[in-house]
Amino acid sequence: MSQSFSPPAARKRRQQKSVEGTLDTAFGWAIGDPKSMIVRAVFCALLLFVFAGPIMTIIVGAFDLNPDPTALTLWPHNPSLENFRVATGRGIWGYFANSLFIAGFGLLLQIIVAVMAGYALARRKFYGQTVVLGIFLATMMLPEEVVAVPLAVVLGDLPLLGISIRGTIFAIILPVAASAFSILVMAAFMRDIPEEIIEAARIDGASEFRILLQVILPMSLPALGVVAIFGFNGIWDQYLLPLVAANRTDDYTITVILRSLRADIEVGTGALLAGAFLALIPSLIVYLLLQKSLVRGMTSGAIKG
């Protein structure tokens, strides 16, 4: 009796379609029903208006000589780069460079810490592991306003070292070098990697560090994409931390200077929208580059098999 086997690619496509069909049913519409398609189209159009409306307002207003933030238009009435010239006069590019350096270097450190700590939580058993996990969860429940004052004290006198880094750009980078969310994402993904693969690497004589770099890390690329997107946006959107850690306005980030532009009556709305447009670009670029990894990381558990 002959038995046919489907290739892995075809089997994966069937699994993805099964997941999509389950989601369609969960949202309450039947697959192929015209009425459901109309409801879906209206629902998607409403979501597009809600989420794309503010972005279009920022983009159009940044290139309009006399922008009206209350009006939603698809093209500027008086196209001009004057708003960017005014924002440049207020030093917007220097703050933009500060944000890029802080977000880039901080994200690199955050990924390194998340990979190391996630591997320890997922693959190593040690005394007090549950307590450590609980501490990570507790830090996610504390708002930034609660830890602002203690953080300023710590940055002014680092424990054990006895030095102060407050007033430097590294005082903004150090607190974002570790993220409980990133650590838990990496730990959850690494925990699902089959133990047989790791045991085979140990039999071949691979050390723990080599297993992490050459076995675990390549299989955790979807989780790294999730960590990179959320980590970058979390660091890029920091507002309170630069105010607490920096002593000079030259060390501020673009999110802080946008508040100053809003309070400056001589600048106008156009320059504020131009600054907001510049602050929007890096987040969009990071998301567009890593969106496939984000989708794979979020759906890997659903189609695993």
Automatic annotation (TrEMBL):
Gene3D superfamilies: MetI-like (1.10.3720.10). It is a multi-pass membrane protein. Residues 96-290 form the ABC transmembrane type-1 domain. Pfam families: BPD_transp_1 (PF00528). This is Carbohydrate ABC transporter membrane protein 2 (CUT1 family). It is found in: Cell membrane. Keywords: Cell membrane, Membrane, Transmembrane, Transmembrane helix, Transport. It comes from Pacificibacter maritimus. Its main location: membrane. The keyword Transmembrane helix applies. GO terms for cellular component: plasma membrane. GO terms for biological process: transmembrane transport. It comes from the Bacteria. The chain crosses the membrane at residues 41-63, 92-119, 131-155, 167-190, 211-232, 270-290. Belongs to the binding-protein-dependent transport system permease family.
